[in-house]
Amino acid sequence: MRTIFFFTGFIALMMCSTSIKAQYTTTWQIGYPNATDLTATYSTNTNTLTISGAGAMQDFNWSSSNNQPPWSNISFYSIVIEQGVTHIGDCAFFTQNHIGTITIPNSVTSIGWAAFQGCDNLKSVNIPNSVTLIGPNAFYACNFLPSITIPSSVIGSSAFAYCSRLTSVIILNSVTSIGNYAFQSCTSLPSVTIPNSVTSIGDYTFSLCSGLTSITCLNSSPSNIALGNEVFLGVDKTSCVLNVPASSVSAYQVAPQWQDFMHIVGNDTGISSIEIPDLKFFPNPVKDELSIIAENQINKVEIYTLDGKIQMQENNFTGKINVSTLTKGVYLVKVYIMQGVETVKIIKN
């Protein structure tokens, strides 16, 4: 009987402990300059850190044991930053690689230095247009972050460097500068469009982006863009296509750094560059007649030399184009469908 009583008591204690753990919360005051302006609350029930209040978060420093975030030793999956918070502090979530999602409200105007550096499990983040400053290294080495939209009035040095699984970058028009090392070693990034509002690209901005196959620069004059040192270091300029306004090809061909690209193609900037499903060219190399098929209806085909001079055009494409009059060499074929255009390289024998 005593054993049964002990076992029952043990079960009751365990149930009580579980209940207490499920409802456990911890709070810290983290505002600046007034600590009481913001409160951070961690709940074990939701495994979420919630930051609420009105004003700026204080900055932290991981190199100082006295100034690390109070939640530095806690593992939580999601962060909710509520409306009213204006600044995400330096090193706020530095190397907390368990974080998967972040909610950032449109009251936030700045994201501090290394705020999310090393959060390599981060899979979702939306930066609102209210943000005007992204500090250096803010998202450095967020290795699982698949895509990012850059608001119209920001970018920081090394902000997205070493985001090795980043496959999509949207730089909104009216962004005027892209910081040093901003996308360095984003090795999975296949393409990028630089809007015509950009007037400055910093040192090594796209260096070691070895996966780049297409760069579209919408500025009509390369001289209007101040380029830093080795902006495209490590990009394969023999295969990566540089798309520029049709009237600007010759200017880019002689401009420092831009001229290093072997394939500079003039484009109608109103047409999007896309990947057309099941697009096939045969034969390639080709001698007389080139066949082109795709899942979508092909509306038009154009053939260019590598220096961007148009050689042939079929406005009502029927599936084949006679290329027997072309001289031997390498050409770029632009295939147009309703949704956009894809450019593919062919060899004429």
How would you describe this protein?
With 349 residues, the protein is mainly β. The chain has two domains: 25-267, Ribonuclease Inhibitor (Leucine-rich repeat, LRR (right-handed beta-alpha superhelix)); 280-348, Immunoglobulins (Immunoglobulin-like). The chain is built from two helices and 26 strands. It has a five-stranded mixed β-sheet with strand order 1-3-4-6-8, with no helix packed on it. Strands 2-5-7-9-10 form a five-stranded mixed β-sheet, with no helix packed on it. It has a four-stranded parallel β-sheet with strand order 14-16-18-19. Strand 3 and strand 4 form a beta hairpin. Residues 1-22 have low confidence and may be disordered.
Topology readout:
Blueprint: H1 2-22, E1 25-29, E2 31-32, E3 38-43, E4 48-53, E5 55-57, E6 78-81, E7 85-88, E8 101-103, E9 110-111, E10 133-134, E11 147-150, E12 168-171, E13 177-178, E14 191-194, E15 200-201, E16 214-217, E17 226-227, E18 241-245, H2 249-253, E19 263-267, E20 280-282, E21 289-293, E22 300-305, E23 310-314, E24 320-322, E25 329-337, E26 340-348
Parallel strand pairs: 4-6, 5-7, 6-8, 7-9, 9-10, 11-12, 13-15, 14-16, 15-17, 16-18, 18-19
Antiparallel strand pairs: 1-3, 2-5, 3-4, 20-21, 21-24, 22-23, 22-25, 25-26
